[in-house]
């Protein structure tokens, strides 16, 4: 049987496994399908009427879509915090979580590319992002570099787990000489996707709010806090509703990664606030608007102070050893941290960078219902993809799904 035949056989068996489950599983998938259809309808409205039905304008040209894109780049990069200790440091406690982390990275990257596509106004414009073909000035355009590193990281996170799963599907041991080079490459590439995204903002001289050399490192710190926090929550759901066992020791080790990253993120946030407010200049206007309001406009103040409060509370809970080792407190802290960083990377970073405008005018941004609908649809698509990947991969990883060479069917 050829490798191509084995691959298609594995896909067929994986789809069969992904379509089987209890009543709660089918309800979950039905809800995600409904939300995807809702998002598709909202996107149809956007294609029909243009971006004018969103809250974006010539004053605030990046909104909810790019905010989610920026946040999800960090979620995708967080998989490296499981890959590194598993394959490089040989920590077996992380090995049970690495497959889930890479599946989450794939789903997050697909969502990133989807948010870029919907922000373009239509998929027909996506060819402009292709280096050497589109109209972006590559290699000078950071946006073109961003598309390259995102697609490259997606390719790495698809091929390495796929190779390992194909080997296990056949009952073979994966060869380290084949997948380890890709693992080491993924470690550096994960850092690259977030640094390039940060450079995309920091390289815009007309937006002083983003002209910060700390932006790239802070992107990484927040990514390594929010991403593993989501992985901790996902692992517990998988442990409860599937046959894939996740030890408490694994969760404790990942929570330690989240704790350190959250602490570093707060330190960097404090450094940025000192820079903005200790010796204010006219370049501090965006930060003043974000935290204190300008000319009576303060739509983002509730967002940023909610984010700051959740960030601090979550970091304190994680820092206290006894609370961090209690699953209820750990889950509470992970939810707070995930939401806090989602706000921080979106409403607290993207929007205020446009306010005030070049002539000092203040135009506040508020996403519209179609915009929110498209965003929910993309998130539902990502969760749907992640669920299917996990549901198909777990039987192969645990050995319950194997290729029967005699009949060329799985048993």
TrEMBL record:
- Where's it mainly located? membrane
Q: Which keywords does this Swiss-Prot/TrEMBL entry list?
A: Cell membrane, Membrane, Transmembrane, Transmembrane helix
User: Where found, per UniProt?
Assistant: Cell membrane
Q: Which Pfam families match?
A: NrfD (PF03916)
Residue ranges spanning the membrane: these are: 25-46, 66-87, 99-122, 142-166, 178-204, 219-238, 250-269, 300-320, 332-355, 375-394
Q: Which InterPro entries match?
A: DsrP-like (IPR054823), NrfD-like (IPR005614)
Query: So which domain of life are we looking at?
Result: Bacteria
KW Cell wall biogenesis/degradation (keyword) present: no
> What is this entry's stated membrane topology?
Multi-pass membrane protein
Q: What protein family does this chain belong to?
A: Belongs to the NrfD family.
What name goes with this protein? Polysulfide reductase
List the source organism.
Answer: Fulvivirga kasyanovii
What are the top taxonomic ranks of the organism? Bacteria, Pseudomonadati, Bacteroidota, Cytophagia, Cytophagales
């Amino acid at each position: 049987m050829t490798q191509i035949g084995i691959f298609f056989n594995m896909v067929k068996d994986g789809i069969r496994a992904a379509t089987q489950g209890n009543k709660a599983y089918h309800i979950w998938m039905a809800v995600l399908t409904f939300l995807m259809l809702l998002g598709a309808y909202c996107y149809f409205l956007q294609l029909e009427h243009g971006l004018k039905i969103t809250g974006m304008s010539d004053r605030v040209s990046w909104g909810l879509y790019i905010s989610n894109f920026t946040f999800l780049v960090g979620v995708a990069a967080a998989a490296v915090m499981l890959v590194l200790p598993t394959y490089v440091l040989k920590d077996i406690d992380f090995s049970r979580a690495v497959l889930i982390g890479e599946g989450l990275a794939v789903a997050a990257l697909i969502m990133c590319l989807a948010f870029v596509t919907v922000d373009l106004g239509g998929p027909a414009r996506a060819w402009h992002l292709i280096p050497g073909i589109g109209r972006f000035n590559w290699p000078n355009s950071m946006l073109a570099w961003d598309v390259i590193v995102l697609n490259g990281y997606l390719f790495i996170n698809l091929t390495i787990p796929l190779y390992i799963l194909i080997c296990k599907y056949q009952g073979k041991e994966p060869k380290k000489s084949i997948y380890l080079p890709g693992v080491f490459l993924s470690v550096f590439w994960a850092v690259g996707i977030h640094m390039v995204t940060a450079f995309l903002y920091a390289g815009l001289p007309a937006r002083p709010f983003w002209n910060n050399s700390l932006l790239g490192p802070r992107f990484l710190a927040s990514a390594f806090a929010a991403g593993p926090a989501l992985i901790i929550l996902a692992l517990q759901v998988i442990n409860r509703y599937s046959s894939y066992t996740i030890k408490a020791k694994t969760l404790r080790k990942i929570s330690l990664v989240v704790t350190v990253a959250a602490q570093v993120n707060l330190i960097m946030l404090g450094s940025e606030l000192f820079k903005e407010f200790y010796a204010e200049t006219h370049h501090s206007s965006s930060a003043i608007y974000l935290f204190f309001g300008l000319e009576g406009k303060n739509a983002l103040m509730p967002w940023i102070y909610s984010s700051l409060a959740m960030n601090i509370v979550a970091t304190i809970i994680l820092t206290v050893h006894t609370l961090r080792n209690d699953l209820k407190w750990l889950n509470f802290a992970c939810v707070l941290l995930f939401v806090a960083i989602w706000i921080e990377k979106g409403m607290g970073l993207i929007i205020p960078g446009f306010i005030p405008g070049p002539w000092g005018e203040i135009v506040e941004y508020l996403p519209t219902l179609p915009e929110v609908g498209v965003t929910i649809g993309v998130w539902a698509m990502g969760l749907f993809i992640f669920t299917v990947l996990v549901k198909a991969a777990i039987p192969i990883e645990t050995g319950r799904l194997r290729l029967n060479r005699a009949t060329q069917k799985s048993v």
